[in-house]
Design goal:
Two copies of one chain form a homodimer. Chain A is α/β, with parallel strands linked by helices and 255 residues long. The first copy, chain A, has one domain: Survival protein SurE-like phosphatase/nucleotidase (Stationary-phase Survival Protein Sure Homolog, Chain: A). Chain A is built from six helices and eleven strands. In chain A, the strands form two sheets. A nine-stranded mixed sheet of chain A has the order 3-4-2-1-5-6-7-11-8, sandwiched between helices. In chain A, strands 9-10 form a two-stranded antiparallel sheet. In chain A, helix 1 links the parallel strand 1 (6-10) and strand 2 (32-38). Chain A is globular and about 55 Å long. At the A-B interface, helix 2, helix 3, helix 4, helix 5 and strand 9 of A face helix 2, helix 3, helix 4, helix 5 and strand 9 of B.
């Protein structure tokens, strides 16, 4: 019992998302599992934390070596709640996903899935975010099993470098098998967006965000390029936003 | 007219925050100003975007060269709304703040103020986040003027390196003058947190997040250290989460 690793699992698509259920089914035998997820979708919540309102928590499954909690929090809140309240100690591993939708390239910055993963990293806990490049609720997760399992087992066995977590993305399922795993850099790709302007029944204007993804990054070793070529991508990621190359170049002294 | 730069200003403390009013008063003469801010505090909203709900916008001030909009969105939504709808073009500069509370060290990852700044960077717009190390609504901004003005004018004149924005933090006001500006790295400091557990009148448990900030980073050139020593800190920051040192070190091939 004592030697079983404690694995905290969360996501940003909510507790009933098929991607979360898939992830649980793949790794459930690897340790003591604590699932902490939100009632509603927290997609696009990034690294948001709930500081203006209190949080509610409900235990919905309590079995030996397996518990599930439903919360009103964000993915980052869920990692914090796990550590401080529900697990009673730092987990040995945090897993997040499997997200319905890619978190490659700039998507990491908007992602609640990766928010949870980065939050674990701040506390020195190895963490992996898994995402599939398919937004559909009926996304086909049928080829991810071996990849999720092997990456998770390797991280459980070997850990990760200090301050580093993994952003893992799976191509949308096609007729071809995935070609393998590539360790990559985050592509410098972005969303080209528009707001749809509509009128409500009272004649007042409101806006919906919409957009399409555009990759202008020609480097050979980016996640977006590998994902487009049917590889499973792994980007070692961290929480240091510093552009270190520019620290000694910039000068802002007055006069 | 045509030569005046277009400056978009936002924050995460809401449209009525004294820090926002202070920032506007300092830079108002530098260009055409468009202020887009949220009705309520969006503190801790990080890089969250509103994708589940439509956004509402209200123009509350419309003067020559100066407009103010109130929105239901996050700071990142406000930058997107400005670009796509309210300004009609990419601004020449995005300013965010002045935040009531430090965004040095790991605070950048939770910060709505810096979320807005990073969002501008994704579109190639120079952007600066200003924050004061004092959470109080009556925080003393009396020493920031020259620093805000000189940094803003320099960025308007010279731009910033591609993909780089600035995270500027001011020490809490004391009897001593600020010692000057230091260009720094993001300190590896973090929050040591707890959840306060309470009971509502119906006997149900809820949790409040609370915590204290702890800096264990001994490096000489971090923002937290300089801030603690009464320097104004500038961290050149970017949206690339890749831990580049680890791209060629990690190997996840099956078997």
């Amino acid at each position: 019992m004592e030697n079983k690793p404690l694995i905290l699992i969360t996501n940003d698509d909510g507790i009933n998302a098929p991607g979360l259920r898939k992830l649980i089914s793949i790794v459930k035998h690897l340790g003591d599992i604590i699932v902490i997820a939100s009632e509603h979708s927290m997609s696009g919540m990034a690294h948001a934390v709930t500081i203006q309102n209190p949080l509610r928590v409900k235990c919905i499954t309590n079995e030996p070596n397996y518990r599930e909690y439903l919360t009103t929090g964000t993915p980052v809140d869920n990692v914090k709640l796990g550590k401080h309240k529900l697990a009673g100690r730092l987990p040995d591993l945090v897993l997040s996903g499997i997200n319905h939708g890619s978190n490659a390239a700039i998507n990491i910055i908007y992602s609640g899935t990766m928010g949870a993963v980065l939050e674990a990293t701040i506390d020195g806990v190895p963490a992996i975010g898994f995402s599939l490049d398919d937004f559909s609720q009926s996304a086909d997760f049928n080829e991810v099993d071996n990849y999720v399992l092997s990456i998770t087992k390797k991280v459980l066995a070997d850990g990760l470098p200090d301050g580093v977590c993994l952003n893992v993305n799976f191509p949308k399922r096609s007729d071809d098998h995935y070609k393998g795993i590539k360790v990559c850099r985050q592509a410098d790709a972005r969303w080209v967006e528009e707001f749809e302007e509509r009128q409500d029944p009272h004649g007042r204007t409101y806006y919906w965000l919409a957009g399409r993804f555009e990759n202008g990054d020609g480097r050979p070793d980016t996640d977006q390029k590998a994902l487009d070529n049917n590889y499973v991508t792994v980007v070692p990621s961290h929480t240091d936003f510093t552009s270190h190359d520019n620290v000694n170049k910039l000068d802002f002294n007055l006069k």
